[in-house]
Amino acid sequence: MSFELAQPTEADQKFIRIALGLGKRGQGQTWPNPSVGCILVKDNIIVGRGFTQSQGRPHAEAVALNQAGAKAKGATAYITLEPCCFEGKTPPCTDAILAAGIKRVCYSLADPDPRVAGKGGDILRNNGIAVTSPCLEDLAKYDHQGFILSRTEGRPKITLKLAASFDGKVATRTGDSKWITSQQARHRVHLMRAKNDAILIGKGTAEIDDPMLTSRGLGINHKPVRIVMDTNLTLSLDSKLAQTSAEIPTWICHRAGLDVQKMEEWNSRKTKLIPCNTAENGNLDPRDVVQKIGALGVTRVFCEGGPKLASSLFACNLVDEFISFFAGKALGANSLSSVGSLDLDLVKMAPNFRLMKLYRIGSDAVCHWVPVSS
């Protein structure tokens, strides 16, 4: 007879942590699906491991069950998200779990997708499988935040990254910015890019830095989507982004009603053009931009935009995580600040974040901040 434990055991938490670690391996490569981790444990021995594969299939449960084979019978499945229970591009994971003879399932949190949303757990219980949930829910919510937001708010998780001197400057008065942070810090940024579905910048950054926005030096072939917010579609066709848009997915968010010939030039380079609403100031409305990106299936966006884009995201309360790299340099008051104007009169009006993590990379300090409401 099935039952539900009121509290997960220490062993449950240990194995869920392992599953969470597995799930991180697929981050940035599984959208629009979440990157789930799953392990199968029998007699305190792991007999199967899996995480969601590239482009979201096969699911973590299917990978782990396939690896375990006959050993899955009588095992406990530890999963970072409630198993799916609907027929999509793959059969329901609940069916696979039942067919394999799993005796117990422990998962971190309920799937926010309305097609699941508790139904997966109910199906397992109703078929005699013991279910324990939630387990390390807060850790799983952090890992799956992009997927959760995509299902609850229709937008991806926005991680804003800024690299600055310790007095908060991103360039000198002449615009020189190479390099403020260390080589080790820049290498870490490439890893962060690889853990996201897309990289977002503004047109100003695209023009000044002429970046490639790729993940290099990691020994992997993952190519996040490159997204530029360019209101009037004026980015040069000679830019690196334009020159490589046929090989690396490149999207440009712009206002509606632009010159048809200009749009055709970008379309000929296999660039995806996304018309978006504008705000009162005539610039693109970041809230509409992230909704349009979310509608295309993207769940995790790494924003490396400049001060103007950073301030617009802060002003719209769209920053879900803020990662600041601080170098041991002082550039002075006449240098470019990392965040543009927020037009604040009182300190209490400022976007408020709490420090989640602090560590050192090379000679730089790295801080991870989340909104105080998180």
What does this molecule look like?
With 374 residues, the protein is an alpha/beta fold. It is 28% helix and 23% strand. It contains twelve helices and 16 strands. It has helices at residues 10-24, 60-68, 93-100, 119-126, 137-143, 145-152, 183-194, 203-209, 240-243, 260-267, 286-295, 307-315, and strands at residues 37-42, 45-51, 76-79, 104-107, 130-132, 157-165, 169-171, 198-202, 225-229, 250-255, 272-276, 300-303, 321-327, 336-337, 353-361, 364-371. The strands form three sheets. The protein has a nine-stranded mixed beta sheet, with helices on both faces. The chain has a five-stranded mixed beta sheet with strand order 2-1-3-4-5, sandwiched between helices. Strand 10 (250-255), helix 10 and strand 11 (272-276) form a beta-alpha-beta unit. The radius of gyration is 23 Å and the shape is globular. It starts with 9 loop residues before the first helix and ends with a strand. 45% of the residues are buried. Residues 1-6 have low confidence and may be disordered.
